[in-house]
Amino acid sequence: AGVVAMVYAFKALQHLGLQPASEVQFHTVIEEECTGNGALDIIQRGYRADACIIPEPLPFIMTAQVGVVWLHIETTGKPAHVWDTSAGINAIEGSMKLYEAMKALVETWNAPEVRHPMYTGMSHPININLGRIEGGEWGSTVPSRCTMIVRVGFFPDEKVANVQSKLEDFIHTTSKEIGITCQVSYGGFVADGCKLDPDSELVRSLAAAYQNAHVDVEGVPVHPA
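C-alpha cells predicted for Peptidase M20 dimerisation domain-containing protein:
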C-alpha cells in the first residue's frame, strides 16, 4: 500500500505540471521485517538524501520507532520415557514457562513511570512475540530439546547491546529456577530504535501538507486525537 501511495502521489504532482525542486529517489527494500538488509544495501551503495519518508499506512506521522531484537533460545531438558515422566525435564514445557516469565518482564518495560516520553499516548508500545517454536523427538518421550524464536521491542534511547545483556541475564536466572539449560543466539532483525524531532522541518512540512489536503478533500481541518 505504501509503495503504491508514494508512486501515485508523485504521478499526481507530475500530472499537475509540478516538478520537484531536487532529486527524488524511490526505494523498495526486501526483508524489512526480518533483517533490514534491503535498507542496508541502499546505504552501502551510496544513496543519500536530506530526508526519508517511509509510507506506512498509518493515520498519523510517526516520529519514533522502537528497536528490535530477535532471539533464538535453545532449551535443553532431560529425556525420559513416558511411563515415568517425573524422571525427565520437559524442554517444551520449560520453554513455555520461560516465555511467560519474559512476557512479564516486558510488561514492566511498559510501565508508565519508565515509558519513553514519545510513547506516553500509546497503551502498549513495547511488545514481545513468540513467532516460532519447535521441539521434542516423538510423542512417547519427554522432550529433551526445544527452540524458540522470540522478537522483543525496546524504546529508542536504549541500545541493542544493553537490551541483549538484560535479556541474557534474565533468561540465565529464570532457566536455572525452572531447571532447564538455555543457550541464546541472535539472528534476523537486530536494530536500535530511532526518533525524529517533532519540530523538524520534515515533520512540519508533512503535517502542513496533510492538513491542507484534508481540508481540500474533507472540507474540515484535522483535529488531533
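Strands lie at 64-65, 67-76, 80-81, 128-135, 141-142, 145-154, 181-191, 194-195.
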